[in-house]
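Run folding on both entries below.
>entry_1
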Amino acid sequence: MEIERALLADGERRRRRQQRLTAMLTLRAGFGLAALAALVFAVLAFGLWFAFAGNGEQFALRIVAALALVFAAGQLLSWLWQPPSEIAGVTLSRVESPGLFDELDRLCAHYRLAPIDRVMIGSDINATVVQLPELGLWGRLRTTLVVGLPLLHSLSPEQLRAILAHELSHVALQRRLFAAWAAQMRAWWHRVLMAMEEDQTVVGWSATRMLAWHAYDYLLDSVELAHLEEFEADGAAADIVGAQCLGGALIEVAMKERYLREEYWDAVMSQFEYPAQGGPILPFREMGVGVALGFRRSEQAGRMGELLQAAPGLELHPCLNDRLAAIQVAPHSTFGRGPSAADRYLGKTASDLACRLDRAWCMALAPCCK
């Protein structure tokens, strides 16, 4: 009884802190964007006025000063115009994976959400739901689910359902109506701050120094908000699929991600240094076998304790130990049996998707790959 009361109190504390951070960060982002837009207009207007005001004396000097002001306004405008990046991945149709789309339809119906606009297969061991305006910075918000092919190879169908429920929980709980646009505004302001920091001009250097304290506080508060949103989404997903299933999926993802990063991709890249005869390097085509057999033979399967001891940093996800504790699941070893989610939902389509991801990977990271 005491444990239940403590968990309820902790959940209520997190909920209140999440609400405060959401409101505070949204207000700061809105004020920052409005102030920057007003500054662009003011500098541009002052530059034009300064160029043509007066009685013709020192006209050339005024023109030079006005051009400098117009240049500064252009720099400010380049920071403000920061549309989100395009989503990387391969579009998946309902015909190619009817089972996956049916599962998404059931989860959307449970949360009373509109169907997902687009499903894409990515190259990371991750799943995420992204909402982006159709016209860059405005327009109807289109919802895209990106599911990594490595994730599909790493999880069972039940575990994948838990991850999908978690991702759709973000939309249901934190990205509806005005809240969705508030999240867009916060992300927009973060991109503006990053553009300022990357600007190597005098204007950029000055603005970065002036707003250094704000940018750092905004980053820390954004990370804390992201953690609180993850805990909330975990709780909602656990209500659908069960805490044990969700906990097992989180453990499986963490362990497989480390295996792929520390062993699989190292082995792939070593082939460039010591190329083997017999054909091109196709990491995504071989990933299904690599995850199914390589992980069990590797020492990664016995190193779960290291993942649980990892200290939280500036990552957008809380550490594994805290997430398991929040849903009251004890750490445990997981060894998948039966078909993977890729086998269940993609079938023969997995080969075509892997081929397209291999081609994109070769073009981006391995120009010598043919």
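>entry_2
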Amino acid sequence: MKALVFEAFGGPEVLQFREVEDPVIGPNEILVRMQAIGLNFADVYRRRGNYHLAGNPPYILGYEGAGIVEKVGSSVTGVKAGDTVGFADVPFANAELVAVPFEKAIPLPAGISCETAASVLLQGLTAHYLTRDSYIVKQGDTVLVHAAAGGVGQLLIQIVKMLGAAAIGLVSTDSKRQAAAQAGASSVLLYSDNWVERIKELTEGIGVDAVYESVGATLSESFEAVRTGGTVVFYGMAGGDPAYIDPRMLMDTSKTLTGGDLWNVLTSRKERLKRAHELFEWITSGQLCVPPVTTFPLAEGVSAHQLLESRKSVGKILLIP
């Protein structure tokens, strides 16, 4: 099979599209021929060497995608060849074939295509747990969403609005304002603005109830923008490492800092199916719209990574084998 691989850490140029050995499935795995693969910042971090990688090179990136079942292991029941499945947390997804543990395979219902699943599973399930677990959005809340034109950002805005709250979006360029506004943000601010002061103005000096912080380098400003007793949810650092937070500030202001990681939520097949089912229901009922998608052939993975790192992309980037 062909796969997108790299042998040394570095920039997008280290990626190569070449022939590798087909995966061999075990009794509790299924072999999936990939139709669409989600590209995420975690892939960039792994390629750069920010995350530990097990095994030896060549390394294959990718954790999210969807495709058609080609073969099932001897102990697998309930899934057959020809079914379509997706996944959000299976390694080596940047390939034509992927060995998927049965417990991580999410059957796709009618109305959810492979491209849709690869577009929303990781980011959609992230937005789901952020609003259902990390900070439970309540009707009447005002919430600040960082990177509001990105895949998670647009989904967060839609879910926040669906739950009866207002979302303020933060974006890096004027060209991204429209995406955040179309997702339903009540206001969209630029990082180049004095955005903390603007948020205070929009909230009559009080601050927002919660901040979904995915940039990292803006963590201190997020605490300035949240009200006394409010919550900052830290779940990413696409813009650099966060500053250290003094716990005395948390005590003095009664503010909360909480972290979020999808892998601490997707702990069983039951959890995956329950959360994915609600996400798919929101999509098929029209309550949640899939953000715009930009596609690249898997062979052009270098260009896809360059676009993602440029922070000029809007919505999701997919790799198509």
